[in-house]
Each structure stands twice: as structure tokens, then as C-alpha cells.
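Dock adenosine monophosphate; give full complex structure.
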Amino acid sequence: MQILTTKQALQAAVSECQQAGKTIGLVPTMGALHEGHATLVRRAVKENDVCIVSVFVNPTQFNNQEDLKKYPRNLERDAELLRSIGAAYVFAPTPEEMYSAEEMNTTFQFDFAGLDQVMEGKMRPGHFNGVVQVVSRLFYLTKPRRAYFGEKDFQQLAIIHHMVERSSMAGSFGDLEIVDCPIVRETSGLALSSRNERLSAQERETALAISRTLFASLEWSKSQTVKEVQQRVIDTINAVPGLEVEYYEIVDQSSLLPTDRFDHAIGCVTVYCGPVRLIDNIKYA
Ligand code: AMP
């Protein structure tokens, strides 16, 4: 496995793969890797000739500088894990390598047909512009046949599908396929997240109420309305000392708009566990 830190080295490696007729599978990450990431990488290794994993904490998708500063980083440990899984290349650039000063400071505006106006997009203005800025650049640099994303970030996945299928960029990425990967959880139910590293042992225990409540809501959905279930989830989580719901929305899985039916619906939650912002979701049907 090779660790590449420049766009030039990455493009040279990609050209070599292309000349040899090898398919490339890309897994974009921000590092501090865990079993959730590892699952995506294993799949990319299996389904493609060459797997490239990017490890880049993208500053343009953070609207909170404190969050960016505190984001866990450990390239050495990440590289060890990726080597053991069989990734061929790790692309780990600095922000300066990835963006010019102008790009770093310009607010990119993409049209997401409203998908970015709800939930994470509403709470973190500009977040998805930054995500699409970095993901489109990674697609351009790595020319993947497949790119792997987790359903843990369900809204991000919806927006990336939109960008590839319908936006003005359609066609720019050849026959790229976006591969949706299910949420990986601890046996306790807690959705794996790099941010879990910032939780104390006590907070980790407290955080279990999030997934427990989401799973319980599957049962509640059999006898209660969407509005009732939504409120019950919020009240149940907020009743746990140390947890505070930022939003819980039950939306249509395609449009991400609020729905009053459980059919094709997903519930997306963001909860503060102490200072750490955690997200999770559950599909109702
Ligand atoms: P991140 O490093 O948090 O930007 O995540 C990189 C990719 O891994 C994204 O596509 C995430 O959705 C995915 N991912 C992160 N955590 C999980 C998880 N627990 N289960 C499945 N995919 C995940």
C-alpha cells in the first residue's frame, strides 16, 4: 500500500491503473477510521481491482472551527488498518495541497434541488457545498468506477446521488456507480462514528439511548402517527440526562421532505451528548 500526499502522485497512480485496464473503487473518509469505514473499504477491495481511500479532514465542510480543530486525526493508525484490509493507495493531502487559497475561501454554491435545505443542511449552513466540493474533486482525481458511502450520513448520500445523476455535472463522471452501505453499529446498537472517540466512558453509555429509542420507534410506528412517533422519540431522548436532541425528522427517503406516512420513510436524528454532536437514523419501511 502506498500513501500519497499530492494530487500529482495520485493522478500518476490513477493513470497507471487506467492503462492496465484496472477498475478503481474509491472510499472517501475523514480518517480516525473504525469498523464502519473498514466495512466500506473491504467491499471496495472486493468489488474493484484497486481500492483508493482518501483520508482528508475537509475544512470547507465545517461551519464550526472548534469542531474542525477537535476532529480526531491519526493517519498512522488509519494506514495500518487500511494496509491490513488490502487498500492499494491512501490519499492523504494537506488542505493546501487540495485547495488553492481562493478555493479555500470561496463559498461554493451547488444546486441540490432543496435536498440541502433540511436537517443537516439547515443546521450546518454551507456544509453540503463543502462536501460536494471535496467529493467532486476526489471523483475528478481518482476516476473511480465505484464510490462507497455509508447510510449513516443518509442526507449526504442523497445529495451525492443527486449530484451524480441529475446535476449539471451529470456525465462528467463516466459510468461511476455510487454504492450505498448500511450503517455499522456496535453490538450495543451505537452507530460507529469517529466522533465517538471524543465521548467519555459515561457519555458512551448515555449515548446508547439514541439507537435504543430509534429501534423502539419501529414498534411505536405500528400504532401511532408520524407526528406522535416523532415527538415521542424527541421526548424520550431528551429525558435522558446528558442528551439533547437538535432535530428528529421523519422524512421521505427520496425527497427528504417531511412525510405523514411511514411508507418509504426514514427518521434522522442529531443529538448532543455532552459537547459531542452525534447523528443516527432509522428506516421505517
Ligand atoms: P467520515 O470519515 O465520517 O466522513 O465517513 C466516511 C464514510 O464512512 C462516509 O460515507 C460515512 O457515511 C461512512 N461511515 C461512517 N460511519 C459509518 C458507519 N457507522 N456505518 C457505515 N458507514 C459509515
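Observed: The mean pLDDT is 95.
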